[in-house]
Amino acid sequence: MNDTVSLLEARDVMKYFGDDRRPVLEHVSVELNQGEFVALLGPSGSGKSTLLRILAGLMKPSSGDVRVHGAPLDGPNPNVAIVFQSFALFPWLDVLQNVELGLLSIEMSDDDRRQRAVKAIDLIGLDGFEEAFPIELSGGMKQRVGFARALVVQPEVLFMDEPFSALDVLTAENLRTELQDLWLAKTMPTKAVVMVTHNIDEAVSLADRILVFGANPGHIRVELKGLPPSDRTTKSAARARLVELIYRIMTNPDDDAMAIVEHSQLDRPRAVASPRAGRRPAPARARRYQVLPDVGIDDVTGLVQYIGGIGGHAAVHDLSRDLQMRTDDLLSIVEATNLLGFGALQDRQVVLTPIGTRFADSELDEEKAIFRAQALDHIALLHHIVRDLETTPTHTLEAERVIDQLEHSFSGEEARRQFETAVDWGRYAELFTYDDSSGELTLDEEHRPT
Amino acid sequence: MAQPIVPVRATMIRDASRDQPGAPPTPRWVDALMLCAVAAVAYGIMRAAAEWRAPLSPNVQVSLSPRELPYYAGLSTLRMAIAYVLSLVFSIAYARIAAGSRTAERFMIPLLDILQSVPILSFMPGVVLGLAALFPGRTLGLELAAIILIFTSQAWNLAFSFHQSLLTIPRELSEAATVYHLGFWRRFTRLELPFGAISLIANSMMSWAGGWFFLMASEQFTLGANNLRLPGLGSYLAAAADAGDTHALFLGLATLVAVIVLLDQLLWRPLVAWSDRFKLEQSGGDAPQSRLLDLLRGSALLEWVSARVTHPLTRALDRRLGTPPTAKRARRELHDDAVSRFLRWAPALIALALVVWGAFAAARALAGLGMSDWELIAVSAGATFLRTTIALILAAAWTIPVGVAIGMNPRWARRAQPLVQITASVPATAVFPVLLLALLTLPGGLNIAAVALMLLGTQWYVLFNVIAGAMAIPSDLRDVAASYHVTGWRRWKTLILPAIFPYLVTGMITATGGAWNASIISEYVTFAGHKQSTVGLGSLIAQAAEHSDFHLLLAGTLVMAAIVIAGNRLVWRRLYALAEARYRLD
Ligand SMILES: Nc1ncnc2c1ncn2[C@@H]1O[C@H](COP(=O)(O)OP(=O)(O)OP(=O)(O)O)[C@@H](O)[C@H]1O
Ligand SMILES: [Mg+2]
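A: This is the predicted complex of the input protein with magnesium ion.
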């Protein structure tokens, strides 16, 4: 494919929001070729949706450029249709009108428009629902309308931003299979698909190419080749290995993804170094603070106690099933457990550390004491906040000061989120109190130096 | 495609009346009645037009005969309707422009805030004089002045509401509109207007209430020695009050209530029920119902009109205005030269020049006022401040307990609501003459009457907001309070007051502005041929207007606007921010 021009391409794209000091996307280059199904995986806030919006021409990159068939893109991309996570149906239009929406800007007679819309509705299994309003439909049916609206314009490139995330498991599975059938049977004239997802299984089942994103700033950590269609069945060993590899990459956000790939026992190289990975010395990012995953402290302590109760270790897969949680959400919590030194991920198993086991077994008072010690020892941000609180004469600190500091390491919104997570954990540890309206942290009285 | 899951129809939760085929057929007489109504309205407009062309006479006699009442009511309603249509068009355009450009927004929204706080009545003399000069010897100028006055009482909240809607369109819906290249016109008609519809309709009802408040002020103007009147329900009421004719006064009032109730039943209720389709999500509660709307939905006449007239018309419009974006972009490129850039900036420059000139002229006028004038203004402002404060305290004192009682008790709410609504819909200004009749004989009667008018005119905002706040208290919070035996004053302190606080503040903001505005009408009155006045900023403004003392009028108006704006910024906004931060229940 090297001698043909790609369908759509982003070159060295950077994106800043407002006057953030940190970009949301840093030096991202991707190329989309004919016949490809590309999946974007990565933690929340790593800029996947932002990249999609830039490629669709919904926003401009701060630097770098987007090219459609080699020509620079200005304004909304005419070759793209998008399927949204929230469906984005117009509630006051019925199914037929919603689907026709995509055709309004195309010059054609009303009859032709109607016919094309009806055909798309049939194709996607909505026959007989032409006159229903979105509110009458279940989530799965709504997303079918979303698909019909996107496919009816016969887009050259189809974008999907977490199209199945808002659906229940069975519905999602069903719709996914249908989409796969449509795609493989080439029933639709679409030449390439880009899908954002949090679901590793989903990515592995569908994609020819998988881009794993990292956060802060958003970048492509690694690009993995997908499986050949014959290997994509649930039972295949190749599939299990690839899923495991991606788990490992995603649960080690600070490690060099290429090294993980090379380390894995895969028999043939699947990874292609992303252009970015070569350019920087991978794990050695000078960052003062760890990235705290955006999870509530109750989830963390709850998970540790749960695993403690079932023998101190559990497979991620089983946990996800028993706790009815999405894998990526679960992994965020595991990441938090890991940061606090309560547990670690080993071979797709979450294993509690001795401290973690003690924490799980103890009563409330001791539990808090253990947590406090771990938080202070392991979480640099909490350590710094408490140190600052101890040294100021009033034992108070303004939130904005802390967030300002964080903005050297994180983009604006992420800095705030990091702060909020730290406050959540620090309050639980009874290290300090926080008054939301005055935006002030105050050192907990019991821990004041005398 | 693999086997599609056959969807279950059990998910249908919409009411059947929406699906046309299921609705019962509408009897033919409804169609006939509709035709008659159309004919009647057409005739009314024609007669009104004749009225507008009539020569202006300084002292129009308003007949107090009850037989003239329907005609007067029609004229007043027509004025309101014209002003309302203008307000609607203006607000939609204004909000759309503001939302479309960051720069424009930065000026346009604060300007709206100021316009909202300026006492409208102060401008009336200037507007009337100007328009009368524009159409010498015709009533058309006066009619326009009346319409402008009503317009200024209707437009601002509509513009605010639509702007707010435009800002809150969900991101993905807006992105879908862009991805599917809807273009300006189709985005407006398919997304923006439907999304804003519910709030526009709710605010339209408020706007009409605001318009009725100025009914009397808009139909009679005193300019110097001249007493100009327009035939209408407002001037009828005024004339009845002047003549001390209690019988006519009550008849006029009854007619007014009838018109308001009729409009509510025939226009607003069907509209509210119809606009339910624009809800983004269905909440659990009952959808609003309207029997009339159900009838209209089944009407063969309407169906015919829709199929033969409206539908082809909108489609043609859609074709013309919904130019494909590619063509548009080419056109834009063509125009992006120095000349067009100048043309785009020219209106802003002209506006700026006017503002600078106006400010300069105003400053010179103000400089002409002496120390004693400013002292008078200060004392008057203090007096009116006292009155508004008393009115607001009284309003809060009765609406909080009553509103909470209604809001926390669904059965009560259902019974009280229509009653409260009808009472609230009677414009306080129309009741004012009756009040004067009773109070003017007492010592300090006008003082009491002025506070009473402020109270009457503004208490409903507070009441409705308190009811809404009380209704929004989550039932589990109430259950918790009950199970811990939190009762009496502690229940108020820990549960009810914090919960209604943000709503109360919202109501108070509107009420304060309204109370100040009402002072112009209530502190200086002509009743049964006698002029009476009391110290106050409103009285000062009204008298300055009557004596064409434009310097004093300007100073009084600016001071009043400044007080209202300062109050909003310094007190209410802060309280509101506090309420939002601390007492939000979600
Ligand atoms: N319009 C915007 N203004 C400011 N910041 C934004 C905007 N859109 C996105 N961001 C920020 O950019 C970062 C990346 O957001 P983005 O939605 O692209 O992430 P994502 O990878 O899609 O995450 P998720 O998996 O949660 O959907 C986030 O920190 C987000 O807060
Ligand atoms: Mg996203």
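Confidence is low (pLDDT under 50) at residues 1-22, 330-334 of chain B. Residues 154 and 378 of chain B are 30 Å apart (CA to CA).
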